[in-house]
Amino acid sequence: MSGGFKISPWPSSPEERRWRRFLEAARAKWGWEMVPAAQIYNAFDLRVATDLPEFKPLTAGRHFFTIDSEVTHLLRLRPLKGAMYVVSFGVLLSFVPIESGGALRRARVSARTNATLWDEPWTEKASEGPGERLRRIADPLSDTDLIGGVHNLNGMGFVEYTLDHHWRQSLPQMRAWFSANSSLESVLQTARTQLEEEGAYSTHYPNQRLVVAYLLARLGRADEARVQLEAWSERASTALPAKWQENLERVIADTKR
């Protein structure tokens, strides 16, 4: 093969070796089995019912809590590639439209609703002291900062083990996030913060600039809202669609009434 290209063997780094020890320990304890998604969502839903009883179920793995006619908190267990799930939490703003089939429609709470603005829990990295490294090597399953979600490769025992760690780590972060995002003003601040840390939130949809534009419009700050809508369009390197301009103007007009 030309160019000197070479595929490195796995594991080839300290981080990969940690992963290998962790997964091998899980397989030795629980075996190898894929668990049906319905069972994983049921285990998640039971934890929501116990620790966040104010949230009502939408469908398996999805829950909501209504603040008012414009703000709804959403919580879900989001599937990822690689037989993994992560907790995702956010807010649905009814006045920020959803684009569907080329048209804009009002956002509503439903079994398929996605959040207007959302986040996921962060994982605290393990200590790098020599004693901690030796402990992780001796007991790979204690290396819990690797978990970062719910893993579905080694049967229901491993699902419960990883869900327990992921849920306990996520719960205080979720509670803090929901507490800090219960009004339009507070959600605006969170959207601006995500813009400042754009690299970490670059894959979010809708884009935070669009969310900021609609929040400013709903708060009666029409000129700032129009500037943000233009910024959103410029960032996307597209001409500003008339339907978005017209929709934003309707929100501005409704706010003035």
What report would you give on this structure?
This protein is α+β, with helices and mostly antiparallel strands and 257 residues long. The chain has two domains: 11-182, no CATH class; 184-257, no CATH class. It is built from eight helices and eight strands. It has helices at 14-30, 37-51, 130-138, 155-180, 184-196, 208-218, 222-235, 242-256, and strands at residues 56-59, 62-66, 71-80, 84-93, 98-100, 103-105, 117-119, 150-151. Strands 1, 2, 3, 4, 7 and 8 form a six-stranded antiparallel β-sheet that branches. Helix 6 runs antiparallel to helix 7 (222-235) and helix 6 packs parallel to helix 8 (242-256). The relative contact order is 0.12. The mean pLDDT is 89.
List keywords for this structure.
single chain; two-stranded antiparallel ribbon; 257 residues; alpha+beta; elongated
Brief account:
The chain is 47% helix and 16% strand. It has eight helices and eight strands.
Outline the fold blueprint:
Layout: H1 14-30, H2 37-51, E1 56-59, E2 62-66, E3 71-80, E4 84-93, E5 98-100, E6 103-105, E7 117-119, H3 130-138, E8 150-151, H4 155-180, H5 184-196, H6 208-218, H7 222-235, H8 242-256
Antiparallel strand pairs: 1-2, 2-3, 3-4, 4-7, 4-8, 5-6
Helix pairs in contact: 2-4, 5-6, 6-7, 6-8, 7-8
Element order: H for helix, E for strand: HHEEEEEEEHEHHHHH
Secondary-structure-derived class:
alpha+beta
Q: Helix amount, in percent? A: 40-55%
Number of beta-strand segments: 8
Radius of gyration: 22 Å
Please give the largest β-sheet. Answer: 6 strands, antiparallel
Which blocks of ≥5 consecutive residues have pLDDT under 50? none
Shape: elongated
Strand content: 15-25%
| Tally of helical segments | 8
Indicate how many domains the architecture comprises.
2
Mean pLDDT: 89
Between the first and last Cα atoms, what is the distance in angstroms?
69 Å
